[in-house]
Amino acid sequence: xxHNPKQHGILQAILELPQKxxxxxSSAAMRIFSPPDDNYPETGVQPFEGESAKKKD
Length: 57
What we know:
There is one protein chain. By secondary structure, the protein is an all-alpha fold. 51% of the residues lie in helices and 0% in strands. It has 1 helix and no strands. It has one helix at residues 5-33. The chain is rod-shaped. The termini are far apart.
């Protein structure tokens, strides 16, 4: 029995497809349910330190 390279490539692609789909979905789920990775400072309410607007007469 001879092995056709084209058939081997198709079989390889068929076998790899479920692995790629599972990897894609699981990486998305891990990103959604993992703790946040943003490093923004906690700012809260900031006091106003500028000049007030002119009063209208």
